[in-house]
Amino acid sequence: MALLCATALTTASAAIAAPGRPEAAFRFDIAAQPLSQALNQLALRSDREILFSPALTQGKRSPGLWGTFTAETALERLLEGSGLAIQLEGRSFLVVPAPRGAKPPAPDAPPAQPPPQPVAIDSVVVTALKRSSLVQQTPISMTVVSGEQLSRLGFLDLEKAAPLLPGLKLVSTAFGRRLVLRGVYGAGEATTGLYYDETPMTGPVGTTADPGVMTPELALVDVDRIELLRGPQGTLYGSGAMGGALRILFTRPDLSEDAASVGASLSSASHGGQGGGANVVLNTVVIPDTLAVRLTAYDQRQPGVIDNVRLGLKDVDASSVRGVRLAALWAPGSRLTALVSATHQNSHRDDISAWNDTAGPWRTVHAGRAPFDGDIDLAAATVKWRGDAVDLTAVSSWYRWRLTRRSDYSGVLLGERTNAAGCMRMFTLAQACDGTQMASYSSYVDSVYPAILNQPAELTAEIHEIRAASVGDGPLTWTLGAYREVRGDSIDSQVRHVDLATGALTEPPQLIGRRDIENHLSQSAIFGEISYVVAPETELTLGARRFDYVKRDRGAVQIANVVSGTWADYAIDARTEEQGWSLKALASRQFGPGLFGYAQVSQGFRPGGVNVVPGLPESLAVYRSDRLNNYELGLKVQSEDRRFTGNVALYRIGWRDMQYAAQTQNRAFTYVTNIGAARIHGLEVEATAQRVMGWDFAGNLTVTDARLTADQLTNTAIGLGLEGDRLPIVPRMTAAASMERHWTLPGDFVGRLRFDGSYAGIARSAFNAGNGDYLKMGGYAVFGASFSLERRDWTLDLTVDNLLDRAGHANAARNTSGPVEYFGVAPRTLRVSIERRF
Known about the structure:
Elements: H1 2-7, E1 10-12, E2 25-30, E3 33-34, H2 35-46, E4 49-52, H3 54-57, E5 61-62, E6 65-70, H4 71-78, E7 84-89, E8 92-97, E9 125-126, E10 133-134, E11 141-146, H5 147-153, H6 158-161, E12 169-172, E13 177-180, E14 192-196, E15 199-201, E16 223-230, E17 244-250, E18 259-269, E19 274-287, E20 291-302, E21 307-308, E22 319-330, E23 336-349, E24 355-356, E25 363-364, E26 372-386, E27 390-408, H7 410-416, H8 420-427, H9 435-448, E28 451-470, E29 476-497, E30 511-535, E31 538-559, E32 571-592, E33 595-606, E34 609-610, H10 618-621, E35 622-623, E36 626-638, E37 644-656, E38 659-663, E39 670-674, E40 677-692, E41 695-708, E42 733-745, E43 749-760, E44 763-764, E45 776-777, E46 780-791, E47 794-801, E48 809-814, E49 820-824, E50 829-837
Parallel strand pairs: 4-8, 14-17, 21-25
Antiparallel strand pairs: 1-4, 2-6, 3-5, 7-8, 9-10, 11-16, 12-13, 14-15, 16-17, 18-19, 18-50, 19-20, 20-22, 22-23, 23-26, 24-49, 26-27, 27-28, 28-29, 29-30, 30-31, 31-32, 32-33, 33-36, 34-35, 36-37, 37-40, 38-39, 40-41, 41-42, 42-43, 43-46, 44-45, 46-47, 47-50, 48-49
């Protein structure tokens, strides 16, 4: 039977009880839910191992279980009516098809009276280590959010879901959102890895050598769960995961039965417009237990809330997301499974969602409109083979992101209209312009005002990974793999005049400047982790990743821009490459029932690159890779009845050669440079309490102290800092809390009431008060409430976001010589949604 465990079965388990120990009775409180999740919860509560084939449990639901039972009796009750039975294999339970004509055994203990308010416990099985493990026994500071919770709260994007993901900060810009964990904030490649299933995705390098500034966000529709892994994940996840990784796992096709769901929603925003959306999920079994297909389609429209008072336009930032995802799961036997999926998503936003300090909350004075358009195509295939001693997994992915990003360029024109250097460039002079020439130059700048950056771009990437993992219950476990990624992107950066009355692009195009940039990155790696039980309940893990990357950047100017300082014969074609190691050492111990701790040292890494910026000194054209070392202690505590959970992580990060964004003196260009070293101290705390006076409570607190450890002085850039300065954007503290209660109502209705709140601590947009861009952000709290009614296959949800209608400065930046732009939370929004399941 160990052979079956290693090859064909899923394991729901906690630590196995010692042989010969008397069979104990436990109090269970397990709500009706998918059978596989109920088995996991029973295994955790009873401290017993339950082995079952996913094909046997898919599509099946368990009855509710309340009362005090032995593990065997509880398992029998969960399996009643499912057509399944149990076999006892040593101390393990094996779930098998029930013999024909078999009758369920009589219980050996009478059930206790069920409590009036059953509460479901979230699923705790995760794959953060690229193998299944229980979240409270996984030596990572992590948070898991179920897809059911996202759907019920109406969270369709990362911005809405962020309060459920402690420590994750989304930094909004004119181009998109940057993901930040543990204060590891900087320009260049992403510092937080974003994964959709097994596929890592990122944004284009663009003109600023900063792919991390744009996160390719797929709508959170039909999601199984989200796993947020805090801290460097350099050995298993590679570059781009210096601060951690965010894994979004979509629901797989169900091999056991056909199913479908239809949902619709309407929303209305204070100070804004109305929106709504619909989504459809269809699961079809083509060959029972062998082949199934799942189709997910959605169309979501978010209301605009920003008014452009300069142009007399209302709700200018309305957006829409449309997408379709098709997945097929093939399982011809107990050993082989293949999952193939394809996704297409179209996104559009009418203008950036920022308001200006001179106009007030949710109002802007932008002279030019900056809409965004993007299409994402993603195809992926995952093949898994379960062997007798080794499991093999092979993944191949391809994605393409075609987009046009835009931002207001008018502030650059305002700042440069009287610049003597610009006049000299215009007339090709070696000495200062005279009065007539300066007047002519200023007149030219006025004639092209206002303007926007209009940047069509395209990114494509291919990713391949193959890995092997040991199976079995021996003291030694290991994972070994190889990774290969080839990524390329191009951008056509145009500075275009827009109509003064409407802010829209003029036709035919009036180009003030134009340049193109191409980037190519190929990186490969071999990686592995090995774990050994060095003493009872104590495990030591060592990991390593050998990386090798080559990066090539090319750029040229087609139309010189005398305002910003480009010239027609500018061209660059440069290459950087590097090889190295990312290492990890980890010790973990199960100190007792419900008490698990770990200590680790881990490393993170990002590739370097080349700035394609005309006029940049040669010494700054190339920037190096940056690395960090993370030292961490973690403790995970859970009460015997699983009602109370507390997790704490304490860490210290040393970051060297950190990549950061700097600006040229005229603010016309942003580039990446290595600014030296920083250290980050942090504390992460999470706690949950269930069924306390009928309520479920959850809370989290993140404290971060991130500072430079050396002066960053240069005459070629502005915006850098001094030793002891706090890192910009990173708040000292963030916190969130929620309380939720369920009621059983007449007519088979179940009601659910939830209140939640989140606090964003104070941060600054620059290193120190001596900088003119030292702007305050954060220092606000946002509250929300939701109520839902569920009856059989129907669910109705009513949600109010931002109850107090706070405008909160989530992020602040100066638009060159224009006004300050604030990206904040959306105003009070009322949303009603309904779902029907078939």
